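Support case: arginine complex. Customer-provided input:
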Amino acid sequence: MVRTPRILMCEPEYYGIEYEINPWMNRQVRSDPDESRRQWWRLHDVLRDLGVTIARLDPVPGLPDLVFTANAGLVFHKTFISSRFRHGVRQGETPVFERWASAHGFEVVTLPPRYHFEGAGDALFCGEALFAGYRFRSDARSHQWVGERLGVAVLPLELVDPRFYHLDTCFCPLSEDEAIYYPGAFDDYGRSVLQDRIPNLLEVSAEEAVSFSCNAVVVGKTVILNDGSPKLARALQGWGYEVRPLRLSEFIKAGGSAKCLTLRIDGEEAAAWKHDPAAVGVAR
Ligand code: ARG
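Agent response - structure generated as follows:
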């Protein structure tokens, strides 16, 4: 049975650079509302043309980062582990995302108080394991809690460069045994975990990593990413992927790009549980 990929997105109606919570954000460098809308719709249309069903979350005034739906939570089968944002300015997004998830048939699970967890921005399945970035946003103990709750193996990876503050800015699983990563965002231990656990790893250079090239959306054998990564694009083509570079400069001003603007609600391509639900831990 072929299921259509499903992705949650939120139009940038109230998007803007209103605070500074990562090194990319600077209130003096404002986003252009019309250009933001154009870039967002281009991403939307490219995904739709690839056969993706796009679920639309209504934008909310006063929540400029709600566009980054990757941070809503982590999806596992019909379980939605809701994010607990580190910064107060994003905490108002949580009830909005939770309302959406429960209205769409997910069981919403929340972490214990004072645990920080930023959803699919920091927790990405590759094969059977959940690769989990911590330090700037999510806590290592949150990932352990999530792993126990879902019955999946968690591989915690410390993020060491504040520009790559979410795991999805420096690591992107492509399939169950392939991923791209920027080695400079991890310590030696993190790099060795990735090298040991993922048979085919594609390294992204420092110059291309700052173009958010790891922040890619994978749909089947197509990879959608910010433009400005010709070397990575060629390497991906060599691996049999079709590459769709898009201009997402308005969102890089907030520290996000293609992947951050999406939440795969039917499971990422690289997640083993999506392809063989019976074989991998089923949520309680
Ligand atoms: N301004 C947002 C923040 O700092 C950007 C989030 C980007 N999302 C992501 N999944 N990397 O939280």
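Residues 21-22, 25, 65, 68, 70-71, 90, 121, 166, 168-169, 254-256, 260 surround arginine (CB under 6 Å).

Case will auto-close in a few days if no follow-up is received.
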